[in-house]
Design a protein that fits this description.
By secondary structure, the protein is an alpha/beta fold. Helix content is about 40%, strand content about 20%. It starts with a strand and ends with a helix. InterPro entries: Macro_dom (IPR002589), Macro_dom-like (IPR043472).
Amino acid sequence: MIELHKGDITAFKVDAIVNAANQSLLGGGGVDGAIHRAAGPALLQECKTLNGCKTGEAKITKGYSLPAQFVIHTVGPVWLGGNNNERELLSNCYINSLTIAKNHHLASIAFPNISTGVYGFPKPLAADIAVKTVKHFLEESRLQRVLFVCFDEDNYALYSELLNSI
Ligand code: AR6
């Protein structure tokens, strides 16, 4: 089941929240900064043991002081105009995060709008990829709840329309 929410993903009490990280996994701005601030310094300590993460891939840590039990860190593509495999890499972020959740027998996972901030991915295209990829994955998995947590009004409007029309 897919749910749409507006707000700060760090407040969600789900099994895992997804972080839109960078390849270092050592923190940054945007949602990444918010997650590290809310989780506390122990999150950075665990992230330092992970040896980074490639674009499109994902790695899991504990959630520490967050209400969520785990954080799944994924690295979205930087939008470079659309001819650098950006679409497939963004789709891979969702697939690889969902696969980790499934392998850990998690029932609920919340996604931010990966790559649509600093990384500059066009929001309508990113929303379309996110919704299609998640719907396709849910057809053959037992994950109970997938939440899209939109922070800005643009993304919330895009997801509302997409989720109502499919
Ligand atoms: N909860 C949910 N969504 C949020 C929050 C929040 N607290 N804060 C921002 N967003 P961005 P990216 C939304 O820039 O584009 C970092 O520095 C925001 O409105 O956080 O994947 C990393 O370290 C936007 O829609 O991530 C990387 O270096 C979405 O989160 C780089 O930014 C993603 O925006 C990753 O860039």
